[in-house]
Amino acid sequence: MSPRSEAHCPVMRREVLEYFLDTPVQTFIDSTLGDGGHAEAILSKLPESFVFGIDRDPEAVEFANKRLIEYKDRVQIIRGRFGKLEEIAREENFPPVGGILFDLGLRSEQINNPGRGFSFSRDGKLDMRIDNSENRSALEIVNETPRGELTRIIATYGEQPGAGRIARAIDIKRREKPIESTLELAEIVRSAIYGATAADLARVFQAIRIVVNDELGELQRGLVGALSVVMPGGIIVVISYHSLEDRIVKNFFKSEEKGCICPPDLPVCRCGHRPRLKRLTRKPVIPTEKECAENPKARSAKLRAARKLD
Ligand SMILES: C[S@@+](CC[C@H](N)C(=O)[O-])C[C@H]1O[C@@H](n2cnc3c(N)ncnc32)[C@H](O)[C@@H]1O
C-alpha cells in the first residue's frame, strides 16, 4: 500500500485551506504533522507554499517524510513538540510565517496500533506516550499515582462520573500486582462502573493519556508560541476533539482579543494589555454531515481560527 492509502484522513481539510488562502505569505507551520494529510493538501493546492511540519511522534515523522517526498523542496520536517514552537522556530531559523495549524489529538495509527497502548479494545502494554523516548508512560501513571490524585485526574481530564470508584478499583488491583495492559485497565474500569460503555472507557483512557503527554500544558504553551511566531496578519487555526482542549483555545483567543484586562473596579488601566488577535470564528466551525458520515473521527472536531493583529 502507498503511504497515502493507509494514512489518517485529515479533518476539515477544505476549511483549513480556506483560511490559509488568506495569509500574508504562504509559509506555514503544521505543528501536528501526523501523516501529512493537511500538509499535503496545502502543498498541492498552494503551489507557492512552504510547510514546516512538526510532530512529537518519531513514527509520524518517518511516515510523513515518505508521503511528502514529491514536495521535498517545499517542506521541512522536524521532530519536536509544539510546546516548544518558539525555540524550534529560532533554532531552525524560520522565515516569517503566515499560518499555523494545530490538528490536536492522535493519528489513526497511534490509536489503532495495540503496541502504542492507547486502545481500550485491543490488548497492549499500557504506554500511551506519543514520543516513546520520554520517561513516564501510562504504566507508571496508573501504578504509581496516589489514589486521590488518580480520582482527580479521571474526574478532571476524563470528566468521568464515578472517578472515585474507578480510582479505588485501580488501587485495589495494583496492590495485588502491577496493572500492565490496556485490557486489564479496561476490565477494572468495567468492574467499577455498572454497565460501563465504550464512552466511559474512552474518557478514562483519555484522562490518563492527557497526563502522560501533558497534552493541555502543551496546548497552552503551543498557543502562546504560535502567537509569538506567526507574523502580523497571519492566521492560527486549531482543530480540537474534546471540550477541555476547545475551552483552552476559546479562552486563549478571547483573552488575546481583549484590550485592558485589569479588574473592573480599578479606575485606571494598569495592565497595559493590548489586543493581539482578532477571532475569525465566534462559534467553532464543525465538520459537515457528509464529512462525519465519511470519516466518523471528524464527529467531535471543532475548528477555531484567529488572525494576529498588526
Ligand atoms: C490528529 S493527528 C494530525 C493528523 C494530520 N493533520 C494529518 O492530516 O495527517 C495529531 C498529531 O499530533 C501529534 N502531536 C500530538 N501532540 C503533539 C505535540 N505536543 N507536539 C507535536 N506533535 C504532537 C501526534 O503525534 C499526531 O501525529
Description:
This protein is α/β, with parallel strands linked by helices. The chain folds into two domains: 13-109 and 215-308, Vaccinia Virus protein VP39 (Rossmann fold), CATH 3.40.50; 135-212, Putative methyltransferase TM0872, insert domain (DNA polymerase, domain 1, Orthogonal Bundle). Helices cover 43% and strands 14% of the residues. It contains 13 helices and seven strands. The chain has a seven-stranded mixed β-sheet with strand order 3-2-1-4-5-7-6, sandwiched between helices. Helix 7 (147-157) crosses helix 10. The longest helix has 15 residues, at 198-212. 45% of the residues are buried. Bound molecules: S-adenosylmethionine (SAM).
Would you spell out the secondary-structure blueprint of this structure?
Elements: H1 13-20, E1 27-30, H2 37-45, E2 50-55, H3 58-67, E3 75-79, H4 85-91, E4 97-103, H5 108-112, H6 138-144, H7 147-157, H8 163-176, H9 182-192, H10 198-212, H11 215-229, E5 230-240, H12 243-257, E6 277-279, H13 289-294, E7 302-308
Parallel strand pairs: 1-2, 1-4, 2-3, 4-5
Antiparallel strand pairs: 5-7, 6-7
Helix pairs in contact: 1-2, 7-8, 7-10, 8-9, 11-12
Bound molecules: S-adenosylmethionine.
The site of S-adenosylmethionine (SAM) has 23 residues, from helix 2 and strand 2.
